[in-house]
Design brief:
The protein has 155 residues and is mainly beta. It has one domain. It has 1 helix and 8 strands. The strands form 2 sheets. Strands 3, 4, 5, 7 and 8 form a 5-stranded antiparallel β-sheet that branches. Strands 1-2-6 form a 3-stranded antiparallel β-sheet, with no helix packed on it. A hairpin with a 2-residue loop joins β3 and β4. The mean pLDDT is 87.
Length: 155
């Protein structure tokens, strides 16, 4: 199981020109180790998981910041046009960092690609999504470490 990475802090920045009502950008400050790592980012608002499905996850490797301090990398976005994501004064925002295996990151990416639009329209997926399961099981078995950090919004 990949080891968890410690996050120093999170910060919020309102991007008023993004979308119709603006977007709150969540920036993460942390030291990335010099090893090759794979991450899944999730966000909670007042103890409710907002990134609760695969298409709401932010996935990445550490190719752009490997071994360096992230210094406020954009990790999640709260769209103020979405009623579930509207930020109010005093809301608790929790950023969750999942340190995952390369195989699990690729599974998520392959799943999202196969579930997306196809050309020609209404065609099936080009192949089944690779998995680490057997005996006709569907999905991917994964164990990963989790680090959470919370902060209240003060408008």
């Amino acid at each position: 199981m990949p080891t968890v990475k410690k996050v120093d802090s999170i910060a919020f920045k309102l991007q008023p020109d993004w979308g119709t009502k603006g977007v709150w950008e969540i920036n993460v400050y942390a030291q990335d180790p010099p090893t090759t790592d794979y991450y899944v980012f999730k966000v909670w608002k007042n103890d409710t998981l907002l990134s609760d499905s695969l298409d709401n996850l932010f996935i990445t490797d550490d190719q752009l910041f490997n071994g360096h301090y992230t210094n406020g990398i954009s990790s999640q976005f709260l769209n103020q046009s979405n009623p579930d994501e509207v930020v109010r004064n005093g809301d608790k925002i929790t950023f969750e960092l999942n340190s995952v295996s390369k195989g699990y990151l690729y599974f998520i990416n392959d799943f999202l690609t196969s579930a997306g639009p196809s050309i020609p329209f209404f065609s099936g997926p080009p192949a089944n999504v690779p998995t680490n399961m057997n005996n006709d099981a569907i999905g991917y078995f994964s164990a990963y470490s989790v680090y959470k950090i919370s902060r209240k919004i003060h408008l």
